[in-house]
Amino acid sequence: MGGVGLPQFLHTEICGKCVLLSPTVPKLKCRMKSKCRRSMAPGLIVGSFTTVSIGSLPWGVRKSREVPKMRDTKRCISASVQPLAQEVVVDTSNAEADVSGDAIRRRFLEFYASRGHKILPSSSLVPDDPTVLLTIAGMLQFKPIFLGKIPREVPRATTAQKCIRTNDVENVGRTARHHTFFEMLGNFSFGDYFKKDAIKWAWELSISEFGLPADRIWISVYEDDDEAYVIWHDEIGVPAERIKRMGAEDNFWTSGVTGPCGPCSELYYDFHPERGYANTDLGDDSRFIEFYNLVFMQFNKKDDGSLEPLKQQNIDTGLGLERMARILQKVPNNYETDLIYPIIDTAAQLANVSYPLADENVKTKLKIIGDHMRAVVYLISDGVVPSNIGRGYVVRRLIRRAVRMGRLLGIKGDGRGDLDGAFIPVIAEKVIEISTSIDSDVQARSSRILEELKREELRFVHTLEKGEKLLDQMLSDASLYARANKTVPVLSGKDAFLLYDTYGYPVEITVEVAEERGVSVDMEGFDVEMENQRRQSQAAHNAVKLEVEDGANVAETISDTVFLGYDTLNSKAVVEALLVNGRPVIQVSEGSEVDVLLNRTPFYAESGGQIGDQGVLYLSESKSLQTAVVEIKDVKKSMGNIFVHKGTVKEGVLEVGKEVEAAVDVKLRQRAKVHHTATHLLQAALKEVIGQETSQAGSLVAFDRLRFDFNFHQPLLDNELMKIEGLINEWIGDATDLRTKVMPIAEAKKAGAIAMFGEKYGEEVRVVEVPGVSMELCGGTHVSNTSEIRGFKIISEQGIASGVRRIEAVAGDAFIEYVNGRDVYLRQLCSTLKVKAEEVTTRVDNLLGELRTVRNEVADIRAKAAVYKASTITCKALTIGTSKQIRVLVECMDDIDADSLKSAAEYLISTLQDPAAVILGSSPGDGKVSLVAAFSPGVVELGLQAGKFLGPIAKLCGGGGGGRPNFAQAGGRKPENLSLALENAREELISTLSQKAS
Asked: Where does Zn(2+) bind (predicted)?
């Protein structure tokens, strides 16, 4: 029971068939006495009575009646498998809240929490998994547990996970259910309960909690999964005609070629039960929607394709929040739920249209904007910024699609008076406004999100304008080619796709503009290019790859490594395992490259941006006799929290089970500690100098330097860098003792601790504090007192992606080495220039001034030589035309450089009588080609433009260029084609001008 206006039963032992006989009786008995001996205790029904009409009630209400309002405490857990009763009591006190997206999410989590599941937070959209680009499923954060790589912390969990999928982005807005951003509600069992409980609770949630009519739910099971079929049919009571057996393609989940897998069972909602049972197809989107998927992870798929039972059977489920909201809110598609519609409505207001009254074309564009704006806001909040690679490209592409849709809808400006302003930040404000229950961090990051969106939109508008210019050039080239070959002008599908994909230029506008110019568009070729990209996208983003690796067998036999390195750099340890080329061995001898797994270690394993320690493992028979020495060059974490010491056996033989002395390189550890603490100080200084909104986007803590990536929209000024350095060195000089403490993560965040980008945290976290300066969640190693850092120097600051800057710096010994090295360079420079250090700048400026003067003199001489040479070829000009005498000169000027070629063309066009057209080419060396076109006013008036004319000629030389109607320059990389290009230019110029001058 439940749903729109359905009752929130309070007693936990009333079965699903229980109904209220009367609102006035003091004690209500269950009608199903033969199956249920429970009763609802007196006093649970309180509040006023409300008359509800038939039309306002959901499924199953037969008549208008007086119903009591009920106080929401615990909900009824149904033990029945029978359909819902037809007579229900309706709680009208909070009907809307019961089916809002936020309420559905909350009710799902509370439902499973009351059944022993721990509510865990959504993980970031940036997964801690190199096999996937973005978080595409609710199970992704539990992948290591399903693989057996790390132990479970809880036997049962439930989450509301943010997800991104872009493999079918073209369907967004065009179907009722496709999205790029969506929330997946899930319940998970890690070797605890299995099919029976998963199925029972899924049914209970759907029927008792959300109030879906039992006769509208259809079930699919894997064709060979008799166990699931029996549970659904015999125990739950779903009629056989509403249970479909389906093949492996639909109902058998695999993680990859090998690895955990198992059958699925899916729940579908039927929007049109009146169509009956004959010839039903659960894939019919007009009738059914799959809203809940249960994966029974019970097998391991081996290399030969055979299946073996897993030692630990798991449950992985997913319920689509948007889909359930659509069902309960009774709207025709997911977009018109309260999760997305407010965003669409904001876009509609900016476009000055009414969504309810709009045609399907306009609605589709508004839906795309609504969907994509959700995706980009949450992606940027999670640290992904627009770029041309990886995750950044996903953000950029979605932003550009949203901007395109807005432009097609006629949105101009920000809707607040600035016609040149950006509009998507205005829509993003609505996304942020309704984000609180999904991700509370979005509000805190709103300024950065809006600024990033504004910059990207304005940049894209400029790109669109470039696309318009490129389209104009492409259409001119197509027309020129068609005339030369006497064919119909066609814009290739490849060119149309280039405009669409690279420049974000809408293909429908390309078609429209082309038709106006008499050019058709090869749409079949465009579709081929689009399909190629779609296949590549699906291959890259549509699967979560899980594999049981060789190392997993090792992981089953050993425990997590105990890390001792906060307190000591030397300790005894037992060799738990040895791996050579990823495979376990019993012993290794001198010269072998080996991975050593110890039961305990002082070595820090790479994490949190800090690289792994280096050092030595000693195996000694006695204090004076060492029988093995292993040089450790790196340490990494694998299979959860197992430290893998990567090294080379320098002496002797090492065996599993032996006790070794593990010794960390003290000097290198100190360098890492210094740089890690300096990184914390750098982040604090950045926030103080350029603003609290800046946040970390990546880091590296190495022995020789530190690297810190942060979100900021422009280069830092010299005075800002000086101020940052000054602050850090001041904090170093304060000689402040650091504090470290382990505490619950909620307490740490409440205290103001900053989380490091890309890191995963457990229930308990380590907090590193420089009192009064910095407080961060961090598992890295740090100095005890800031004075150990000694000094700090920024060595570079640069942009690495749109909206992301990078600072590299040195501290401690690396700082001293850097300063000494720069001093040596300066001494050498002083010696070469024969000046004092303070005079170097003045001397260099003077030398540069002298060099510029000499270069200008040389350029002037070259230009004069080119003009002189040009004067000797004026006699080669041809005169064409009858009504108008037009002079045409097309010549190669050997190895003249581009600037001199320009001077020659300017001389010739001023010397030859108007109208005149000059095309010059040269090959100045290094495989380069220079081209110049100069047209007099009379030629331009005839309709020829130098820039458009020169483009196709430059293409023949492997290059391109452009310019004004009267003057253009171009370059190329194929000097061997220069003669042919100039000959084509001469023929085309003579042919075109002859027609216009006749």
From this structure: 676, 680, 778, 782
